[in-house]
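User
New here, help please:
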Amino acid sequence: MRTDLVPYADIAAYLKKEDTVLIPVGATEQYGPHLATGTELRLCELMAIEVGEITGFAVTPIVPFNYSNMFLDYPGTLTVEMATVEAYISQMAHGLASQGFKHFFFINIHAGSLGPLESIARSLRAKWGTVGGLIDVFSIMRDKGNVTYATDQAPTGHAGEMVTSVALHKCPEYVFMDRVKAPPKPLRPFVDGVKTVSSGKVSFDGSSFAVFSDISDYTPLGQQGDASAANAAQGETIWNNSRDYIAAAATKFSKMVLKP
């Protein structure tokens, strides 16, 4: 049930039998030279809507902005500070808790909101006795997509083969395949012996540590993976497997009871 598409009486009736709400948390940011800046936003929204349709759970409108400072070199990226993410979503969620929602499941698609969402979930529990949880859309796509990628350079990375395939399946109007370019190979290292993984992580000697870089520091095109082999059929498989998993996880989450 989309909470923005029904009258409040329908939501009141829902709360008499169910207390779970799905809150999609998206981002509007650069996605390489071939994907629209709204790609993450659209995919997150569609995932939450479809999971809501499968489970019957209430779904709020998507949170459209996130902490995306690592992409500010690219026009069209919209970013707010982490404190703003936390304050905005927290105020909304506390309002929902006051109405009777008890299980808050955040459908998240961007790493910048992980810390704020945990803080929100804990504050909701402290005040209202709620249960808070989060599932990361791209992590599930990586774990449950069940496809073999044709490219070997960060196929599941930012703007790579995985997300481009999914976008070709769900929102092809957001994809400009004639603009696909190959990123540097390998991604630019910051020092010999250290491999760049992401804007915030490098690997070294069997483990890793954090370096809070911008994506333009190591891949000027704004992408980590090669999207040249992306295709809609592969995207459909990734999407369906991931959606079904998230729906099953949401159902399990809705029954969870934490200690008093």
